[in-house]
Every structure is written in structure tokens, then in C-alpha cells.
Amino acid sequence: MSQSAFSYPVLSQKTYFIRTFGCQMNLHDSERVSGVLDACGCLEAAEPAEADIVIFMTCCVREAADQRLYGQCSSLKSLPAAPSGKRVVAIGGCIAQRDGERLIDKLDNVQVVFGTSAINHVAELLAHAFESDEPQVVTVEDPACDATALPWHRETPYHAWVPIMTGCNNFCTYCIVPYVRGREKSRPIENIIDEVTGLVRTGVREVTLLGQNVNSYGRDRYGAPRFAELLRAVGETGIERIRFTSSHPKDLLPETIDAIAEVPAVMPHLHLAVQSGSTRILKLMNRRYTREDYLDLVQRVRERVPHIALTTDIIVGFPGETEEDFAETLSLARVARFSQAFTFIYSRRAGTPAAEMPDDTPRERIQDRFDRLVHVIEDTAHAFNQQDLGQVVPVLVEGVSKKDSHRLQGKSPKNQTVHAPVPEGIDPGSLVGKIVDVEVQTARTWYLAGEMRGEPR
Length: 457
Description:
With 457 residues, the protein is of the alpha/beta class. It has helices at residues 24-39, 63-75, 94-99, 102-106, 122-131, 177-181, 189-201, 219-222, 227-235, 254-262, 279-284, 291-304, 323-336, 363-386; strands at 15-20, 43-44, 53-58, 88-93, 112-114, 136-138, 159-163, 165-166, 185-186, 206-210, 241-245, 269-271, 309-316, 340-345, 392-400, 407-411, 417-421, 435-443, 447-453. The radius of gyration is 23 Å and the shape is globular.
């Protein structure tokens, strides 16, 4: 895209603030929006009060995201005047794609709405909003929009999100994503490899490959999934750490498991969303695998990668879930021995099949189930971390602990949070983006802690 595409004098020196809700794809989209604004001469602000432009990049998977958006948009009205004298509020992402112009009616201080495939229009829409009082809305998919070709303002110099595909074809009955992100569309494998190769040259040490279902990568473009081939090719670029998300159990092929086991750069961590341990509920969810299928898959993964960290998503309180169904979920969680799980109480999303399913389960009963599940996950997570006691783990340093500026914080290959004191005489900032070896002396439920050994690298 030419530089002239970002020539909007009205935006030059305007300050901007972006708040992101939701998944890693939204985080990456925010980095692209930020890159576009940087290219227009805008300046990033630390707080909404300091910004001429406030952008909310939204998620609509759960109802709480809608409420947070409405609350935070309304709170902007009480801020002092913007530095330039006019503040433009914009909403992007999935809620923008779903609701479009209705957001302008619901939120009277929002001037710009842009959908999931309209990031390349952001500068134009904002410029028009500053020059007129007319609302600016674009939610129609733009076939020419390739967000990966836009400028990029990465949050960190050592890690990068790399989308390999967009959209989803699965239509789980509880999920709004296929309706707001569209059908699966895979990027050419050559483009992804070129992008990662360029990132390695700039000093990036870890990439996370992104897709709603990475295991089906390439099916739309090449006629068959090529995710295993992609993992091997990315591993040959020289990148030190490869992660990926999200991974649908029904499409996790044996060759992908082999690539996880055999490519040194692929980290021993697999996020494999199960959603429920009940085959009956899985069928209602349209997940297209059974409880037995999932546990068999877990066994096959562990046979190839014995110490892999297995994480998951679980929904509690799906319409019609009985105590027997929930007991199946609890037992699956114990058998699978998850190192972490993102647990959610079912959130009804208008427009999805599950929203029409009757359910009279009392909220208190669902909350009780949720609490019981959390206890099981805490037990399995704590047990998983014990295997690293006394081990030396390589940690990619992300910064210092929020509670103690003299303790570094980073991630192990298994994606565990690791803490260690910063050695005397070393500036903590100099360690960010470095890999340090930490001898683990404490293993808690949600983190490891120990002492640095050797030199950072």
C-alpha cells in the first residue's frame, strides 16, 4: 500500500489511544491500526484523556464485552476536552462488524465504526470524522483489504503475532465468530514464510501463528490442510520460538502432532479447546468430536510430546447441561490434566443457534458448577508445575513483576509464567527480550519461581 494512502493532513500530530478487548487476533488488528495511525503522523497517548482519537477494538464472544464497551464509551463523556479540541471515538472489531450503524444510535459519542475487514479504511474514516459531524461507518467486506500489508506498530520488539488465516467454517452453535469474521481464508504459505523471515531479521525471537482454527490452515487455498508443513517451514526461518492458536480438536492431524514433536522451535504447549466433557453437549455445540475422541487425541499428543503443556477452553452452563453432563466435564479435566484452562459461564449470543435453545438451570447452580471446575483446574495446574521443580528452564523475559520491580517475569517454553530476582548490578530493562535460564525452586499453581543461572542471551 502506497504512502499516499496515509496522507491525511488533518490527522497529523493528533494523539490516539487504543483499547483492545478479546482474542489475540484483535490484539494483532490493534497493532495494525496503530501502525496506520503512526504512518499518518499521529502520536500514541498513554490515556484516553490525552487522546484526540479513542479507538475500541472489540470482541463479541461474550456479553460482558458489550457491557464493558458501552460503559467505557460513556465514561469518555466526562473527560476533559481533547488536546486538539475535538475527540473522535471509533469502534472496530467484532462488535463493530456485528452491529454496524446501530452503534451510532446506541452510543451518541461514537463517530466512526469499522468492521473486521475495514482496517485499511481507518485513516480515511477518522479524517472525515474530524472534518465533518457525519458518522462514518464501513462494515462491508473489502476484498482488497489485506491487513498484513498495512504498517505495523508491534507492542514488543521480541514477539510478533502472525495471522495465517482469517475466518471460521465450524459454526459451533454458541459462537458468533463465523458471522463477524467470515469464512476461512488462508494466506499463501510463501507470504507467511517471507513475513517471519523478515521478523527474524529485525530481532523477533518468538512468533504466535494466529487463526480461528489453525489446524485447517490451507484447506480453502490448497484443497487440504497444510498446517504441519507450515510449522516445519516456519521452523526453518531461524525463529527461536513458535506458538500457535487456536487449535480445533477435530482437525488436529497426526502430521501436525509430529511437527510439534520434531520441530525444535515449536514450543511444547498446545491449546486444545474442549468446551465440554459430555458427548451429548458436544453434539449440541456442533463440535464434531466425542469425549472419547478428545481423550484419545490427548493420549496421542502426550505419547509424542510427553511433557507438553495442554491448555483448554471450557464452557459451563451450556443450555440443557445437566449435572451428569457437568460430571463428565469434571472427570475429563482430571484425566486430561490441563496445565491451565480458560473457563467461562455460557453467554447467550443473539443470532447463534444456541441462543434459541431453552434452558431453565438456575444461575446459582451454574455458578456452583463453575466454582467446582475451577478447583479441579487449580489442582491439575499445580500438579503439572511440580514436574519442573529443580529443573533449569529457558525463560523469555517480558519485563518485571507488577508487584516487585526487582523480579523479572517471563515465559517458559510451556508458556508458564516464571519469576526470578534480577541479579545485583543488572538493569532489569536490559533483560527484556533476552532468554535467561532459571533454576526452578518454587512451583505454584500459576507460576514458577527460582534463580537465574548463567548469562542472558
